[in-house]
Design goal:
The structure is a homodimer. The first copy, chain A, is α/β, with parallel strands linked by helices. Chain A folds into 5 domains: 4-130, NAD(P)-binding Rossmann-like Domain (Rossmann fold), CATH 3.40.50.720; 148-285, Rossmann fold, CATH 3.40.50.261; 296-450, Succinyl-CoA synthetase domains (Rossmann fold, 3-Layer(aba) Sandwich); 500-568, Dna Ligase, domain 1 (2-Layer Sandwich); 572-683, D-amino Acid Aminotransferase, Chain A, domain 1. The first copy, chain A, has 24 helices and 29 strands. In chain A, helix 11 (311-323) runs parallel beside helix 16 (439-450), helix 13 (362-374) packs parallel to helix 14 and helix 18 (484-494) packs across helix 24. The radius of gyration of chain A is 32 Å and the shape is flat. Chains A and B meet through helix 5, helix 8, helix 10, helix 11 and helix 16 of A and helix 5, helix 8, helix 10, helix 11 and helix 16 of B. Chains A, B: This is Acetyltransferase. Chains A, B: InterPro entries: ATP-grasp (IPR011761), ATP_grasp_subdomain_1 (IPR013815), CoA-bd (IPR003781), NAD(P)-bd_dom_sf (IPR036291), Succ_CoA_lig_flav_dom (IPR032875), Succinyl-CoA_synth-like (IPR016102). Chains A, B: It comes from Mariniphaga anaerophila.
Chain lengths: 685, 685
Amino acid sequence: MINEKLLTPKSIAVVGASNNTMKPGGKIIKNLVGNGFQGEIYAVNPHETKVQGIPSFASAEELPSVDLAVLAIPARLCFNIVKTLVEQNDTKAFIIVSAGFGEAGEEGKKLERQIVDLVDRNDACLIGPNCIGVMTPSHASVFTTPIPPLTSDGCDFISGSGATAVFIMESGIPKGLRFANVFSVGNSAQNGVEDVLAYLDETYVPGVSPRVKLLYIENIDNPDKLLFHASSLIRKGCRIAAIKAGSSTAGSRAASSHTGALTSSDAAVEALFRKAGIVRCYGREELTTVACVFMCKELKGKKLAIITHAGGPGVMLTDALENGGLKIPQIPDSPARQTLKEKLFPGSSVENPIDFLATGTAEQLGEIVDACENDFDVDGMAVIFGSPGLFPIRDVYEVLDQKMKSCKKPVYPILPSIINVKEDVAYFLSHGNVNFPDEVLLGKALTKVIHTPPPAPSELFLEGIDVDAIRKIVENAEDGYQSPEIIHQLFDAAGIPRVQEIVAKTETEAVLAATKIGFPVVMKVVGPVHKTDVGGVVLNVRNVAQVQKEFHHLNRIEGVQGVLIAQMASGIELFLGATYEQNFGHVVLCGMGGIYVEVLKDVASGLAPLSINEAQSMLRQLRSYKLLKGYRKQEGVNISLFEEIIVRLSSLLRHATEIKELDINPLLGNEKEILAVDARIRIKK
Amino acid sequence: MINEKLLTPKSIAVVGASNNTMKPGGKIIKNLVGNGFQGEIYAVNPHETKVQGIPSFASAEELPSVDLAVLAIPARLCFNIVKTLVEQNDTKAFIIVSAGFGEAGEEGKKLERQIVDLVDRNDACLIGPNCIGVMTPSHASVFTTPIPPLTSDGCDFISGSGATAVFIMESGIPKGLRFANVFSVGNSAQNGVEDVLAYLDETYVPGVSPRVKLLYIENIDNPDKLLFHASSLIRKGCRIAAIKAGSSTAGSRAASSHTGALTSSDAAVEALFRKAGIVRCYGREELTTVACVFMCKELKGKKLAIITHAGGPGVMLTDALENGGLKIPQIPDSPARQTLKEKLFPGSSVENPIDFLATGTAEQLGEIVDACENDFDVDGMAVIFGSPGLFPIRDVYEVLDQKMKSCKKPVYPILPSIINVKEDVAYFLSHGNVNFPDEVLLGKALTKVIHTPPPAPSELFLEGIDVDAIRKIVENAEDGYQSPEIIHQLFDAAGIPRVQEIVAKTETEAVLAATKIGFPVVMKVVGPVHKTDVGGVVLNVRNVAQVQKEFHHLNRIEGVQGVLIAQMASGIELFLGATYEQNFGHVVLCGMGGIYVEVLKDVASGLAPLSINEAQSMLRQLRSYKLLKGYRKQEGVNISLFEEIIVRLSSLLRHATEIKELDINPLLGNEKEILAVDARIRIKK
């Protein structure tokens, strides 16, 4: 429960303040003062009356009323200080930077819990412990540098690691990335990344609150909360990019089943991010580049113009964007193109990339941008302009700055000469712009952004799904792998089509069953475990006489308890399965069966519950999608029916979290119908 | 024909020298002087007697003998100056930075040719025109900045674009990348990228010449030369990384056939680079990161230790490396691990990543590196050490510097705090080290390097290949698609197994043919074009009686000229084809046939001629490799036979460059044999 006192306190007390700025308690004071905090700052240090010119108190008891307290003292001293402040000084917000708590063992965990209880009881909020602190446009209560530009049009940034937060800012600042609120949540004692995000969602004011959120996450404790608030913020117009570190460790976790071998909690993270509309990043450079893309105007299509004064970077950017699915369309001939061409030096190209040569001027750049904005059929522009170091190029960057502000289309500036025209680039950034020093990293970031889907709708598909029946079946089921009967009941309750099956004890029953189901049928012995090995499965039984014959044959097998008569499904072998991931819920996997899933690993995943749109996008991700649709003379499957079955399965699972593993194998489909032939379900309550 | 005068001239004349350092002719003088050129510098400027303190001559005629001339004057004046210098002043090396030549139209092309002729006739060398110049450890004859550190242990860098060369250096310098010789080849009038590389190969002295070569290429005019010298240099111990810009434009080129749709000249570039052992990069940041990897000691295995004082970057690097196929193995418990653990602060981890906490010291770092070097089973180390900005960390970087020099295993330094400890990082770089500010970009570069194969052997596989016969067949063939007879002759001459086929005119001939080939056979009508449509193909003919019956049946079809009796091949449908790429030769494509090539695009490519190793690595790249080997109950194909057929085809093609398109379809294989059933070959002379 973050509160306003944390973000915009009128007064801040630094407990453990020091004159030594190489100590955290000294650096926090320095940062607060240096960054121009407008309210009162109080120091608490028993040995000083002034700390860096700030009045210092011998103990917390002596402090006046204070909104926010930052504690940089040994862990064992923190509880009493918090108690004094929260009970006597009306302090409602705490940042504990000190280590030695939960991360250090049982003793520390206990201490941490006591402080959380105390803070909770008093309706106060706590960031940390074991963190670098918090920065907002109002105050920089951190013991680290650098302090980035803190403005309300910057990014909000929530980090599960303090050092990583520092390194991410060091990666972003040279690109001109500005920040608004930076939270280092440390041990997440009261507030983790999800909780801070929830607060930012709940207090979001369109047009006022920061629009871009960056997350660095090591553990997702509450995936539902993350999903809910990330989706909500994005629907309100925000953009979110996040790193979830640890994809490989999770990937190597031993898998419990054939399906599980393809899932992992990283698949769950991936599915969660896609569902929420979060752009997933894997490194600092990538995160800050995506953040810079977010700081530009929104790209509303896939067509870009590349404006450059140097061939090479223009070509490399074209490669990166086209390979990533964006378009660098040739500008068709037109009066506007003619007019533009006349304004450029001979030898310039007005196709696309638009190359206005090494000698190109600021004025020409302005003309090109205007033409792209008003006349050419493109959705955005990338402008590449560096310098061989002969003379300053400030005039060009001035025009670029103006155009970026006046254009409705996004303009992505690529200023590669971070050495030659360092000052000019700094001037450009000082006007609130970002810079992409490497065109290919921009290209990849843009590609990633454009391919991230919007948040999935949160409504649950319930048409024809008997939730009560599902609950009853699951509640009565025992732990372990379920019998065919229970599986059938569950599928029927969820409207998942399956082959009809009837167990016959006598020849007459067998004939009746086959007639009811319709020929051809499959006959299977009931009783023996390894049916195929004992010759207990007969496919393609086409008439009554054959049923009679096979019944007698099967009935002679040792251990026979009956004969199962089943509908004979046909078509393409499909794959549909799910595993339950602790906290996340079910990751649903789908694709074509057999080698497609086992060898080619051509599987799409999504987080239950799924919408039809999500199922659609899952299927379209498959390399084998063309085969599913029917390729050449090969019949495909009914795609919309497959989508519906995926959605139905996901709704079933959402109401049966006790199902830890589910595997429909095989699921056979053609253009008319798709039928589950066999399935495995494991329940654990 | 680059010569030594270009690299280590005793005297340099700058024609068009100026006092205005914002002009190329002024900046070149400034760079030469500023970079401490040890020989004589002469200026040529009719209006000055001194230029920037350097003696200036009114005309080239007045100059003394001079080794190298740099021309920064209008294009039309260049010929006469070169003529004077090369004929009267014993000048053997020229750099023309001026534009207005070949790139500007016909007139310029003519001028350029005249100068090349003149230079050629006089055994002199020319770089440019239309370039930024040349830098070597001896002189910086460029009109641009920055001038990177130029030392013989830096990289050689050859660029097809001047501006891009500048931007690449601006990307490399902040990482500590040093350079040796930098060539901007401009219009490549006499020397292109390949020619400069050839010179570097021919003059290579192991242990003395720069070991790392970087290339930025826009056009590969002479792929054979590039392949030959790149391979040669790499075999001598060099490492080469290159950008070939323009992958997307080429990729969109309309394809002329089903095979061609998957090929493109970019596939040829890709195949060429892989064959040569060149690490292919797609952007500046990537190129300079790979170059920094090359500057470190060679990684001789796949196991890395990650040493870090901050969790986050360690995890992200683990992800990047493990996902890229490297290993971050857990360090097993051992006395050495115990001893190390005791030297670190409580809470440190000595598994892997080795995390020695935010409070970790320089001394501890030294101990960890020593343990990784001497005791732990790893092939290299990545050390992550930044700073939250509280105090300088020079002692840590001093230890790191020493250890990097003393260790036999490579140590990759990741110093992310390029703001907080800017001076310490600069100090570290000043000791000749590189830095990887972003761990994930390092991880990707390292992955790319480790996955680039060594140069392929250059011997041609000729066992059982009748080159004379191939030449005779091709020389006698007419342009266009070839008849089955010619295709059979070619395959037989190359030892490519194919189904046996005999055309029978009578029933007796048909029976004899079938008996000779062996049952079952396929019978096809000869004459009608659409054989299948007229019922002219009969599969699986099993005995003499059936041959007789089908012969009569087929013989009744309109337009019949005979009946073809063919061996009935069976097994997995394979794909093998090739297209001829201008200058490159044949790009050979292979994979599984049908949907694997058409829908799943699971195709591997290589440049003819191929070795068995290359064919092996092509097949292993396929996602369907497991299926080729035989999956579950499904029979596979004879892999080593498939490899041999790929190699044989490539050797055939190497002797028949007139074949522009070749497509074996189908090629059927099982565990015993692989047979070409049908093929299409197009010849154009």
